[in-house]
Write a structure and sequence with these properties.
binds phosphoric acid mono(formamide)ester; 4-stranded parallel beta sheet; 39% helix; globular; alpha/beta; Rossmann fold
């Protein structure tokens, strides 16, 4: 595995291996550090969680980190993403973490490159590292995904998180349902749409999504979204006792979820963020395995 671009490309075994690696890192089992290995975090769209948890994961692995954003890179002078990646490879970068708005552009750019690329969100396409940290969070409560009932609720059509998770959860054997207003349903993801009341009554996991206003041609709130499609206190009380609430965040409090529920007993929203660091360490270790082995050998010989 050289790149992580889409959950579609991972087998069930590879997903389980990544979760096991994250578990080992979290339990304090010795991880391989990667001294003298450079990562470049290229964020051409805003990010708080993904960008900073990658930075922490990379530093914990002993990597040197270069930060690139749209404003201070030569992308503003018209350089393509492909040429930017080739440039970073030429100067010695081994890992590029990329968030950018165009679906599928990374698959094209990755061809022929020897550095590893991680998709940190490509427009409405995919967000595989978010999906993996979500799966890891679920696995801590429900070790088997077989038959697990998961509902993904919100702006399905514009959500890269929904796309990645729908694919990954089905691969692991979960039964996945969706809740969305008709204009935000997407049949390429699923035709199984239910009401929020049905979702809360039957689900082991309720995953809420933010309305992606920035990706809508016509923006603006659709009526009383919270009452019709969101998680209210009444609905939370009708959830199974051991069910959990997930949200990739940022959360729009009072729109997709009542504010007081963001940190309620069933919520794992901030745990997801903490799990994001160990899962991203596991992903980097897995992608850079050969690199890690060589660098580690050199490092040991020098010390
Ligand atoms: N969940 C997520 O991708 O958050 P950021 O946009 O803050 O990275």
């Amino acid at each position: 595995m050289q790149h992580l671009l889409s959950m579609n490309e991972l087998t069930k075994q590879e997903i389980e291996h990544l979760m096991e690696t994250a578990r080992r890192i979290e339990s304090g089992k010795r991880m391989l550090e990667v001294p003298c290995t450079f990562a470049s975090n290229i964020f051409l769209e805003p990010s708080t969680r993904t960008k900073n948890s990658f930075y922490i994961a990379e530093k914990r692995l002993g990597m040197d980190v270069l930060d690139l954003n749209g404003a201070d890179s030569s992308v503003t002078k018209g350089e393509t993403l492909e040429d930017t990646l080739k440039t970073l490879q030429a100067i010695g970068v081994q890992l590029a973490v990329v968030r950018q708005p165009e679906v599928g552009v990374l698959q094209q750019a990755a061809k022929g490159l020897s550095l590893s690329i991680i998709n940190a969100g490509d427009g409405t396409g995919e967000h595989p590292t978010q999906s993996l940290l979500d799966l890891y969070t679920i696995s801590k409560e429900h070790p088997s995904f077989e038959g697990l009932r998961v509902t993904i609720a919100g702006d399905i059509k514009h959500s890269r998180v929904a796309r990645s998770n729908a694919c990954a959860l089905k691969k692991l054997g979960a039964k996945v349902s969706f809740v969305a207003p008709v204009p935000w349903q997407d049949e390429s993801i699923s035709t199984d749409y239910i009401t929020m009341d049905e979702a809360c009554a039957q689900s082991d996991v309720v995953m809420l999504l933010r309305i992606q206003h920035e990706r809508h041609v016509i923006s603006g709130q659709q009526g009383d979204y919270l009452q019709e499609f969101g998680l209210t206190k009444e609905r939370e009380q009708r959830m199974k006792d051991d069910a959990i609430i997930l949200h990739p965040a940022p959360v729009n409090r009072g729109i997709e979820i009542e504010s007081s529920l963001v940190e309620c007993r069933k919520s794992r929203i901030f745990d997801q963020m903490a799990n994001g660091v160990v899962m991203r360490m596991a992903i980097i270790q897995t992608l850079l395995k050969g690199e890690i082995a060589n660098e580690y050998k050199n490092y040991q010989q020098q010390t």
